[in-house]
């Protein structure tokens, strides 16, 4: 049979292009990155060898028996090896700890067996051979190659399916395409045996994987060619795993506070790019931009006097002024970074901890990890990492608890609402401090997931409110200011409301004004609130009077309810001036058409005073502490009239 090699030629060209793209982009070295490179090389060799193999099968008399066997069996070995590397690649990307060792044992044992069977075929004729008429034949064990390849590809597909929540839409499509392309090529080959399209389809699959998983932009900081925070953490984890010493020079730039560039984001971005170019030129491939104000340089190994030479190079980078452009005007500015150099051992528990240490507000000119100051910092970091681990575990296993504190409706004397409060056990029989939990979740990018978890639990509870929560009109859910920065927040919350078939007015969202909120963020918050209010969701302003929430905030945000902080109430019970302020504030809130809730009510005197001042809702230990879901349901049934 005369096979067509055009698709193999296309595969060689396509893989060569992919090979070039791999090196044209700034490469960041990771285990799965190296495995992907191996897949590209194997596919390139396989495609090239297959071209020769096709000609040897079509014109067997033109090749010696040794060459015929070598190219044909070599092609089979390479093509099946590609499926094995896909399994290793999937295992490395998905990182399922329990499967790491079994996968490697399976890969090496199976491919050692395959190697033996394939390259002994000239004698045994088990896999493939040329008969006496020089016609290419498949041996009795040839289907075993297909079975192994299919098993490995299906295994990789299973790994991705098991961890599908970690990947975006494009990554899922890329993996699915790689598997489908391989199976389609085999079926097509059976129906149209002359067209050898296996390597061509694999090449297309590799392009999809490259775009979806090997995009080096994931590791680069914005428009610079320096690595970002994610790359920094990945590098630190790799070095920690090796238990290899390494040294870091951290640069803190305070130019954001200078009169030349303050409050000018475009100028700050220009400076970051210019600075990154200079530092990267002095330390090529070793610079990590952790933020606009913080850079890090990692030097692997314990090189004597490296810190001194690094400081000298850094000072040279900043010797000349930086030229920036603003509104067609050119300005120059000088920057003097604060430099911290440290020698790192395995003491740091995680890359995130080291990242926090370097980018922290406190600056130390030089430190070693054995210093008392750093030991104190490390202890705090270890504690934070423990809480972060508990958060991640709770998100994965859905073991967060949502408790509810009833809120008394003064007019009716019943409990018409409650506040949802998150709880997390610390593993020692106690609970993690809720404020600390939220702070760590915000700091480490978990607050969106934690917030959605609480919101969904509230929706699930409210779904059965007709039978379980008679009298409860709505549940209040706290929103972190960090959550409000997520442009997808409204879509996510509304999707959950629809998923549980709830009326939007059964949810009340609590927001808190903070000093960190910028004018742009306030505009975004107002837009979010207006959209949610249009759907029927109400809003409360939490902690009114305790910090940055003032009467001006009430005029800025479209809130329906104002929650007074407990400290105001407690001061009012002992200080006449605080009592006057509380009464005036309650009157002002009523005057602009808002409802008032006062938290921290713990005595009858407090209750009586608030009733006399026409407070709408009361919340505190006098009525009920926060309760787990079942206890809360029981409390409502017992205290609300039938």
Structure characterization notes:
The chain has 642 residues and is an alpha/beta fold. It contains 23 helices and 17 strands. α17 (489-499) links the parallel β12 and β13. The longest helix has 30 residues, at 65-94. The radius of gyration is 32 Å and the shape is elongated. The relative contact order is 0.05. Mean pLDDT is 83; it is low at 361-375.
Please state the overall shape, judged from the principal axes of the Cα atoms. elongated
Order of strands across the widest beta sheet?
A: 10-11-12-13-14-15-16-17
Residue-averaged pLDDT = 83
The helix content, as a percent range, equals: 40-55%
Number of helices, where a helix is a run of at least 4 consecutive DSSP H or I residues: 23
Low-confidence stretches: 361-375
Q: Mind telling me the C-alpha Rg?
A: 32 Å
Strand element count? 17
Report the biggest beta sheet as strand number plus sense, adding barrel if it closes: 8 strands, mixed, barrel
The helix/strand class is alpha/beta
N→C terminal distance = 86 Å
Portion in beta strands: 5-15%
Brief account:
The protein is 55% helix and 14% strand. The chain has 23 helices and 17 strands.
Provide keyphrases for this structure.
642 residues; alpha/beta; eight-stranded mixed barrel; five-stranded mixed β-sheet; 17 strands; elongated
């Amino acid at each position: 049979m005369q096979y067509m090699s055009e698709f193999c030629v296309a595969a060689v060209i396509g893989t060569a292009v992919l090979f070039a793209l791999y090196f044209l982009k700034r490469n960041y070295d990771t285990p799965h990155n190296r495995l992907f490179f191996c897949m590209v090389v194997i596919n390139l060799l396989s495609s090239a060898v297959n071209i020769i193999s096709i000609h040897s099968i079509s014109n067997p008399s033109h090749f010696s028996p040794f060459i015929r066997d070598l190219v044909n069996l070599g092609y089979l070995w390479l093509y099946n090896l590609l499926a094995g590397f896909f399994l290793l690649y999937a295992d490395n990307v998905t990182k399922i700890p329990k499967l790491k060792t079994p996968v490697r044992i399976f890969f090496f044992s199976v491919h050692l067996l395959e190697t033996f069977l394939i390259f002994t075929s000239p004698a045994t004729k088990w896999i493939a051979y040329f008969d006496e008429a020089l016609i290419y034949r498949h041996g009795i064990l040839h289907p075993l190659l297909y079975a192994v390849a299919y098993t490995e590809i299906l295994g990789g597909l299973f790994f991705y399916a098991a961890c599908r929540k970690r990947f975006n839409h494009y990554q899922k499509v890329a993996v699915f395409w790689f598997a489908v392309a391989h199976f389609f090529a085999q079926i097509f080959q059976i129906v149209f045996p002359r067209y050898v399209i296996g390597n061509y389809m694999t090449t297309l699959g590799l392009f999809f994987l490259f775009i979806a998983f090997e995009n080096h932009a994931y590791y680069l900081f914005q428009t610079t060619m320096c690595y970002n925070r994610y790359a920094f953490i990945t590098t630190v984890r790799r070095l920690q795993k090796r238990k290899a010493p390494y040294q870091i020079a951290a640069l803190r730039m305070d130019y954001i506070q200078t009169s030349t560039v303050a409050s000018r984001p475009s100028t700050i971005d220009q400076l970051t790019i210019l600075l990154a170019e200079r530092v990267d030129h002095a330390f090529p491939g070793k610079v990590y931009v952790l933020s606009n104000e913080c850079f890090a340089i990692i030097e692997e190994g314990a090189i004597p006097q490296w810190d001194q030479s690094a400081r000298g190079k850094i000072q040279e980078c900043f010797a000349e002024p930086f030229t920036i452009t603003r509104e067609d005007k050119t300005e120059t500015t000088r920057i003097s970074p604060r430099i911290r150099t440290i020698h790192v051992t395995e003491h740091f528990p995680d890359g995130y901890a080291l990242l926090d240490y370097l980018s922290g507000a406190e600056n130390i000119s030089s430190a070693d990890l054995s210093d008392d100051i750093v030991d104190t910092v490390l202890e705090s970091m270890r504690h934070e990492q423990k809480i972060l681990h508990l958060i991640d575990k709770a998100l994965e296993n859905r073991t967060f608890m949502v408790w509810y504190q009833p809120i008394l409706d003064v007019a009716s004397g019943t409990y018409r609402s409650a506040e949802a409060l998150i709880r997390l056990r610390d593993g020692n029989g106690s609970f993690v401090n809720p404020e600390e939990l939220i702070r760590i979740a915000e700091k480490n990018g978990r607050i969106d997931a934690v917030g959605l978890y609480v919101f969904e639990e509230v929706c699930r509870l409210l779904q059965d409110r007709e039978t379980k929560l008679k009298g409860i009109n709505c549940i209040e859910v706290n929103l972190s200011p960090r959550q409000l920065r997520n442009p997808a927040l409204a879509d996510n919350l509304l999707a959950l409301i629809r998923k549980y078939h709830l009326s939007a007015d059964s949810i009340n969202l609590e927001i808190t004004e903070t000093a960190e909120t910028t004018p742009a963020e306030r505009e975004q918050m107002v837009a979010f609130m207006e959209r949610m209010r249009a759907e029927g969701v109400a809003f409360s302003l939490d902690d009114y009077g305790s910090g940055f929430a003032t009467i001006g905030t009430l005029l800025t945000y479209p809130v329906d309810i104002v929650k007074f902080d407990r400290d105001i109430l407690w001061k009012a019970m002992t200080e006449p001036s605080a009592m006057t302020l509380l009464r005036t504030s309650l009157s002002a809130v009523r005057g602009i058409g808002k409802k008032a809730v006062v938290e921290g009510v713990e005595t009858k005197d407090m209750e009586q005073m608030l009733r006399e001042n026409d407070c709408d809702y009361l919340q505190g230990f006098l009525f009920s502490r926060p309760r787990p879901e079942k206890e809360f349901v029981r409390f409502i049934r017992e205290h609300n009239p039938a």
